[in-house]
Amino acid sequence: MFTDKANIIFKEVIDTYHVIDSVDQEFTNPYDQKSQVLEHLLYRKCWIDTVQWHYEDIIRDPEIDPVAALTLKRKIDASNQDRTDMVEYIDSYFLEQYKDVEAKANATINTESPAWGVDRLSILALKVYHMHEETVREGASEEHKAACQTKLNVLLEQRVDLSTAIDTLLSDIEKGDKYMKVYKQMKMYNDDELNPVLRGEK
Predict the structure, then answer these.
(1) Beta-bridge partner residues of 179
(2) Which of 53, 24, 62 minimizes the C-alpha distance to 124?
(3) Left if phi > 0, otherwise alpha if psi is -120 to 50, otherwise beta: which for 68?
(4) Sheet strands (E) in the chain
(5) What global pTM score does this model have?
(6) Is the Cβ–Cβ distance between 195 and 188 less than 8 Å?
(7) What pLDDT, on a 0 to 100 scale, did the predictor assign at position 27?
(8) Which CA distances in Å does 83 have to 51, 61, 68?
(9) CA–CA separation, 106 and 155 (whole Å)
């Protein structure tokens, strides 16, 4: 199943990130861009999500220097763009994979493309990792640990359901029961012709 591979790679990414546990650490993709295209894309996607997760932690520091916060906000904006780009690359991979499939006359479209499901699965992997950390955190109360374990159980169930839904969607596309239609994201706030503030600076 596709999501078995994805979930393994996401865990690999998150575990690797937390060895150094720094948003400034060097990124290295262990998967070859040509011979392991899908693995390469999944690894990069989850790395972006993992770094951004920690950006979001840092910027919520009530004592953060305003100048540093603005710099970090710019990094979060750039990360969001990278995240969206990676989703589109993954969808392009699936479009190529299924380009020769002829959709059935009664085929339907899904509410989201496969890669946006993958996006949610990657974020879910981060939630699982960090919620598990809270269940074993030294110094945390037993009540806190128990509450977090309950939440973790829900997240694990959610991961099973989401994984099943993604695999089912891919299977349906492969059989022609569903078809892919991908809309490129039109981020207006990054475009200096569409964002009136940026347009005014030109």
Answers:
(1) 109
(2) 53
(3) alpha
(4) 108-109, 178-179
(5) 0.90
(6) yes
(7) 98
(8) 11, 23, 22
(9) 34
